[in-house]
């Protein structure tokens, strides 16, 4: 009897998700007008948006990172702001400050660029720790305090931070504890040759297609609620926990050879974000339940910045990616 009930439930959840996720295809099609290829990045942006998380993008300059989030904010009826992080930036330049108004003989509040639905923090590793922590606090608390007043940030609120892996001189790398605040860390690759040919043609023509707002903020907020209802079986939960625990105690999972390579494993934030991202991925694929493939699809983006590698691993050229691959290949799929 129980099975029959749960089958009916899943069918109704599936119907609801199918209905609520109809906009995903429209949104993707709208972004494709400007963004050539980069399907992985666009999908990850949607996962961040639906999962109410934030994204750290790493890639060499010129891979359309800024363009992608700008296009997303145009396709969704949202506000967009870009903060170029530089070594002389101050926290007030991000969150806002109190300004003395001589006429009123009082202070008035000038809100900073963080007050937008989509915030691009360009080259986050260029600014000092004080500025980084001001941004990360706003990301975590979804609120900002200026003077004695506290302001809630607009919903939905998505921060996409980029970092350039090439030049490391004069940069302030994000500490592990701060990197952990990002739901996903996505590494962007170069486009395929055929895609780059299309990029050249579009640029030489100089006429880019107009991106129209095709999704309302209300639809996004409804979708964020709907994502929570995506069904996740206990077996999938166990699968997620096994993957995360294998980053902490590899010896318990027949992976003793990883022990000397891992400095520290993923935190409970890793488990939460892996479960959330898997639900979002299922939602994007217009399914009302999570399958193991959803977990495998997002596991690298969720965990690559949460595993600390030892000097020994660095000496052997082993990356956190390699460690995730070994763990995913070893752990039994439900």
Question: Can you describe this structure?
Answer:
It contains 14 helices and eleven strands. The protein folds into two domains: 23-195, 3-Layer(aba) Sandwich (Rossmann fold), CATH 3.40.50; 230-330, Helicase, Ruva Protein, domain 3 (Orthogonal Bundle). It is α/β, with parallel strands linked by helices and 334 residues long. A hairpin with a 4-residue loop joins strand 3 (96-101) and strand 4 (106-111). Residues 54-184 form the ATPase AAA-3 domain. InterPro entries: ATPase_AAA-3, CbbQ/NirQ/NorQ/GpvN, ChlI/MoxR_AAA_lid, P-loop_NTPase. Keywords: ATP-binding, Nucleotide-binding. Belongs to the MoxR family.
Write the layout of secondary structure elements.
Blueprint: H1 2-20, H2 22-32, H3 39-50, E1 55-58, H4 65-75, E2 80-84, H5 91-95, E3 96-101, E4 106-111, E5 118-122, H6 129-141, E6 143-146, E7 149-152, E8 158-163, H7 176-179, E9 184-187, H8 193-205, H9 217-229, H10 234-248, E10 262-264, H11 268-284, H12 292-303, E11 308-309, H13 311-315, H14 320-330
Parallel strand pairs: 1-8, 1-9, 2-5, 5-8
Antiparallel strand pairs: 3-4, 6-7, 10-11
Helix pairs in contact: 1-9, 3-11, 10-11, 11-12, 12-14
